[in-house]
Write a sequence for this structure.
C-alpha cells in the first residue's frame, strides 16, 4: 500500500480528492475535493463577483480553493470547504498520482493563510513542516 501524504490525488466514492492530512485524534481525514472545470469556472465567477461587491475577498469556506495546474487537473479547483467531512480513517482509497510542486505549495499556502478554514486543519498542516 502506498503511503498517503499531502498532495496525493486519490479516488474515493467516484470523486477525485487531494489528500491533505490525517487527523488521528479525531479519526478524520482532511481531503480537498477536485471540482470539474465547469464548476470551477462558476466558483471563480462567483468569487470575483463577491470580491467586487465587497471590495475584498471573502473569508467564507465557499471561497477556500486553489486552481490546479497539475496535468490531468489543470483548470480544476481543489476545494477545501468541509475538508474533514468526506472520509474517515477506515475508508479505502485508490491512489491516482500526486499534485505538482507548484500546486502543493499553493495549497499549503492557502491552508496556512487560514482564511475561511477550520483552525484544526491549519494547525495539522503547520505540523507537517
Amino acid at each position: 500500500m502506498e503511503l498517503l501524504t499531502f498532495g496525493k490525488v486519490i479516488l474515493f466514492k467516484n470523486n477525485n480528492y487531494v489528500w491533505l492530512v490525517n487527523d488521528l485524534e479525531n479519526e478524520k481525514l482532511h481531503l480537498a475535493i477536485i471540482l470539474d472545470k465547469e464548476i470551477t469556472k462558476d466558483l471563480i465567477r462567483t468569487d470575483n463577483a463577491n470580491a467586487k461587491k465587497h471590495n475584498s475577498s471573502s473569508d467564507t469556506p465557499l471561497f477556500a480553493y486553489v486552481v490546479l495546474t497539475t496535468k490531468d487537473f489543470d483548470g480544476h479547483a481543489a476545494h477545501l470547504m468541509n475538508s474533514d467531512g468526506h472520509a474517515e480513517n477506515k475508508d479505502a482509497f485508490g491512489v491516482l498520482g500526486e499534485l505538482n510542486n507548484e500546486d502543493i505549495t499553493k495549497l499549503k499556502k492557502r491552508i496556512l493563510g487560514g482564511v475561511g478554514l477550520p483552525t484544526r486543519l491549519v494547525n495539522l498542516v503547520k505540523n507537517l513542516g
Remarks:
- The chain has one domain: 8-128.
- Residues 8-128 form one domain.
- The CA atoms of residues 12 and 92 lie 7 Å apart.
- The two ends are 24 Å apart (CA to CA).
